[in-house]
């Protein structure tokens, strides 16, 4: 049996180590995307705010988790767009649909995060 990908042959800590390296490469690739950079900067700015407005660790986790969710979905959206562009640069209805679905997922994650943050701010400042 011939393996094309050496990662599939690795075991234990070696596999984990190399997988972590691939993840770092993915984060670097994500950083080349303007939307991901903007969302990452917003997350960095809001991180200390989460500790200020939250009343307990669960609220901090919810606030920060919602920000991380937006970043995760943005990375997946970028991956979808990259694969679609790899398949071909010409316009196709299925390519448009795939990109639109990824964009919709990002929008929903942002709306969820925004709702969580607005509710937390309301309770911290007015509640």
Automatic annotation (TrEMBL):
Identify the residues that bind ATP.
15, 22, 33, 81, 90-92, 99-100
- Per the annotation, how and in what number is the cofactor bound? Mn(2+), Zn(2+), Cd(2+) and Co(2+) support activity to lesser extents.
Cofactor(s) the protein needs: Mg(2+)
Q: Where is the active site?
A: 74
Compartments where found: Cell inner membrane
By its UniProt entry, which Pfam families does this protein fall under?
Answer: DAGK_prokar
The catalytic activity, as recorded, is: a 1,2-diacyl-sn-glycerol + ATP = a 1,2-diacyl-sn-glycero-3-phosphate + ADP + H(+)
Q: Where is the signal peptide?
A: none
Concerning PANTHER family, the annotation shows: DIACYLGLYCEROL KINASE
Family membership: Belongs to the bacterial diacylglycerol kinase family.
Please give the function described in this protein's UniProt entry: Catalyzes the ATP-dependent phosphorylation of sn-l,2-diacylglycerol (DAG) to phosphatidic acid. Involved in the recycling of diacylglycerol produced as a by-product during membrane-derived oligosaccharide (MDO) biosynthesis.
Q: Per its record, how is this protein called by name? A: Diacylglycerol kinase
């Amino acid at each position: 049996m011939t393996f094309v990908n050496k990662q599939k042959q690795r075991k234990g800590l070696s596999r984990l180590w190399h997988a972590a390296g691939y993840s770092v490469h993915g984060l670097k690739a994500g950083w080349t995307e303007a939307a991901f950079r903007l969302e990452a900067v917003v997350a960095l700015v809001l991180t200390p705010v989460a500790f200020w407005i939250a009343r307990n660790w669960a609220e901090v986790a919810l606030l920060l988790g919602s920000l991380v969710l937006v970043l995760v979905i943005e990375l997946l959206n970028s991956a979808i767009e990259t694969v679609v562009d790899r398949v071909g640069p010409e316009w196709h209805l299925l390519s448009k649909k795939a990109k639109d679905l990824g964009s919709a997922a990002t929008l929903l994650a942002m709306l969820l995060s925004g709702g969580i943050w607005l509710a937390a701010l309301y309770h911290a400042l007015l509640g």
